Every structure is written in structure tokens, then in C-alpha cells.
Amino acid sequence: MSLQQRVTDAFTAQFGEPPTLITRAPGRVNLIGEHTDYNDGFVLPMAIDRAVWIALRPRQDGYVFAHSLEFNESAEFLLAEMVHRHGEWAEYIKGVAWSLQENGYELIGWDGIVTSDVPVGASLSSSAAFELASARAFSELSDIPWDPAVMAKICQRAENEWVGVSSGIMDQMISASGVDGEALLIDCRDLSTQRVTVPAGTVVIVMDTMTRRELSNSGYNDRVRECKLAVAALGVKALRDATLPMLDSVRHQIDDVVYRRARHVISEDERTLEAVEAMNAGDAVRMGDLMNASHRSLHEDYEVTNHHTNLMAVIAQGLPGCYGARMTGGGFGGCAVALVEAGAAETFSAAVAAEYKVQTGIDPAIYVCRASSGANIVEAS
Ligand code: GLA
Question: CATH number for the 3-194+372-380 domain, one of 3.40.190.170, 3.30.230.10, 3.40.50.2300, 3.40.50.2030?
Fold first, then answer.
């Protein structure tokens, strides 16, 4: 059963009538450009064919009620009187409501059923998908014009200030602006985007290590802080404005960890722009090499891989038909991504799963991803 059907049926069962509105917002996989977004840099993600779906109807008493099919839990809150509760899925809805209200919008409440096939904590942006699906719901009911970049920023603020993670803009931008069949180069300074096509004859394969980022986001927030130290030493606006020779000239003023963090970010921006050229030229070999180099840099300099993402990338890189592979997303567990010859996708997927199982005892989830469109309204049938 499709998720749209599932969420519609559950809504009808719970409320005794069909939903008036269904919203959907996708997760994402990042092809290259990791930990560059909060440094005003470049990222190259695509929205994937896994999404958060919300079926809903408006209510006029200022409350939001939501039930999550995955967590089998309900939450209700008053828009005029929201309080934080630690670590619950409904905080994303609340955060978005808070952020929209902070931006001056008056909101209508709703009753909704939420479902998702974006795995949580797997570095495929389940939280951004949740935020954008919620934003789409509020904006539609409350007559707020839908501008993807504006909504992405509002949702990022929810994540930064309500949920408390200093994340950049990539996940919200791609979930808001994804394009069917295309990856997007996003300039995280001015939020301009450019469509980039995956080389003909290749597919993007996500490989879920089944390890999850721990609850605390301290590793991520540490990286943000370390980048700021490098920015201060370099005297630039953001690491986007620095080059490797500039970094070398201040090497003696910063500690080695900060130096390596900055080296990753600066070189990753270069790799991302090169990746766009490679993709535009249909050069899968070059693109794959850049993905491998990105992984190495994330492992050695940025230190956001874990044993399982390293292993997955290394196994994938060694298999026939694989152009390149790397961890994807924030890191500390989650997924890796590979660019694979289309004709080899099946044998590759089976081989990577078998070898990973032999080495870890864990059955991974491996799937070919199709690039999908960003957050939208689905007419309730
Ligand atoms: C997480 C954050 C993004 C980005 C990536 C790393 O997904 O939410 O903003 O920083 O990590 O590239």
C-alpha cells in the first residue's frame, strides 16, 4: 500500500471522514558537499523517493493534534501556548509553528496523521522532511504563500532555535526545492540553485549501515564551532571565502584539529564544484573519484565517519560497476551513497549487502534512489 493510501485510510479511521489535505515532503541524499552548508559553501543533494506524508483537516480552536503511525503516539498543543518537550517527534511540528509565528504569520490549527518511510537518524534528513511537510500544511491552511527558499529558512530556524541543532540549510532547501529526476547544486550563501543530471547510465544507490547517530548532536555542534575558530583566524566571512594556501598561511595560529576541519571544508567546496563539471560532462569516473576523495576527507580530516560507514564505503568502492562511494549527511552513522553503473545495480546491491553482513553481522538496507520533487500538496482523493 502506498504511504498516501496508508495515511488517508488511517485518517479516515481516526476522524470518521477523509482528510481535506495531504502534504508530502521528501528526504534527501547528498551526493557531495558535506559539512559545507553552514560554511556558506556548495552542496549537491537530491530529494529522494522517500518522504513524510501528513493527512489533515483544519480546526478552528487554535490547536494542532497529530498522530504518528510510526511511533504510534499522539501529541496535541495550542498554537498560542507552545512549550518545549525534550526529544519528541512532535517538536518538529511545534518548531515550525513557532518559527512561522515568529516570522509574523497567523496560523490555523489542524488534526493530522503523519507517516514516513524516511528512516530516522539515518542521515537522509527525516527531520527536514517532517519540517517541510508541516510547513506545507500550515502554509496551505493559513494562506501563506509558498516560496521554497523562504520556507526552508523558516524550517531551518525551527531546527536551530526550537529543536537546538545548529544545522545548515541544505536539508530544508532540498526537501523544499527538489526537482524530479535531478540533483541540485545549492549555493548556501545566496540559496541559488542549479539542476545537475546524474551521468547517463548510472544510478544512485543508498546503503544504510543500520547504525544510527546517537541522540546527542554534540559532534555536529562541535564541528560548527571548530569551523568558526578557523574563520576567526583567517579573517574571512566564512570558510567559503578561504583557499588552501590561505589556510596554510595561518596554520601556526590554529590547532591541528581546527586546521584539519577547515582543510576538509575548503577542499570539499572545490570538489563539489568539480563534481558539477564532471556530472555536466557525463563523466561518471571523475564524479566517482571525487566521491571517494570526499569520503577520505570526511574520515581523516573531519572525523565524522564511524566504523560502519567507513566499512560500507570501502566495500562499495571495491565492487565492479561502482564509480565511487562515500558517507552521506551529517555522519556519525547512517548511510553511505554510491554512484553505480545502471546495469550493475542489482549485482552490486547484492554483493555489498552480503559482504557487509559477513563483516558486521548486520543486514543493511540497500536501495536505488530516484530523484523526486520537493515538498508539495497532494489533493486528497
Ligand atoms: C546535516 C545537517 C545539514 C548538513 C549536513 C552535513 O544533515 O542538517 O545542514 O550540515 O549534516 O553536510
Answer: 3.30.230.10
pTM value is 0.96
Backbone dihedral angles phi then psi of residue 109, each to the nearest 5 degrees: -80, 175
Domain boundaries, the chain: 3-194+372-380, 198-369
Per-residue pLDDT tens for 178-194? 999 999 999 999 999 99
Is residue 206 within 8 Å of 124, Cβ to Cβ? Answer: yes
**What is the best residue among 28, 29, 35 to mutate for testing ligand 1's pocket, by most ligand atoms within 8 Å of CB?**
35
Convert the pLDDT of each residue in 206-220 to its tens digit.
999 999 876 457 788
Q: How far is the CA of 39 from the centre of ligand 1 (A)?
A: 11
Pick the CATH number of 198-369 from 3.30.70.2190, 3.40.50.1580, 3.30.70.360, 3.30.70.890: 3.30.70.890
143 is catalytic: no
Nearest partner of 287 among 170, 185, 156, judged by Cα: 185
How far does the centroid of ligand 1 lie from the alpha carbon of residue 206, in Å?
17
| Nearest CA residue ID for atom 5, ligand 1 | 330
Per the structure block, which three cell numbers stand in for 131? 519540517
